[in-house]
Amino acid sequence: MGTKPEHGTAACYNQGCRYTECRQAGSIYHKGQRQRRAETAAANPDVIPHGTVSSYSNYNCRCEPCSKAKADSRKSHT
Q1: Which residues, at least 6 apart from 5, have a Cβ–Cβ distance to it below 8 Å?
Q2: Are residues 10 and 26 in contact, defined by beta-carbon separation less than 8 angstroms?
Q3: 70 with 57: CB under 8 angstroms?
Q4: 29: which of 10, 13, 18, 44 fits an S-S bond (Cβ 3.0–4.6 Å)?
Q5: What is the rounded distance in angstroms from the CA atom of residue 31 to the CA atom of residue 40?
Q6: How far is residue 42's CA from residue 22's CA, in Å, rounded to a whole number?
Q7: Rounded to an integer, what distance in angstroms lies between the CA atom of residue 36 and that of residue 60?
């Protein structure tokens, strides 16, 4: 088994730690990931798998198929 990551890192959060510092680090990391995906998609829209909640959330795509997928997912949670 490998060594446990240091607290306050996204790696520690990804291994299941929910200390405040690890949650914050995970949040910062994932926000950056979403930003990088959105920038990639803006430069090359063909990389987006349209019609998915993931594309709506991770690529910030607001096309009709992605918006519909997000709306449908909200309906299924109520």
Answers
A1: 11, 12, 15
A2: yes
A3: yes
A4: 10
A5: 14
A6: 30
A7: 11
Residue 78 is predicted with a pLDDT of: 64
Separation CA 53–CA 67 (nearest Å): 8
Q: What is the pLDDT of residue 68?
A: 96
Do 36 and 60 touch, CB atoms closer than 8 A? no
| Structural element, H or E, at residue 14 | helix 10-14
Structure tokens at 12: 């520690």
pLDDT score, position 75: 87
| Whole-prediction pTM | 0.68
Token reading at 26: 């995970």
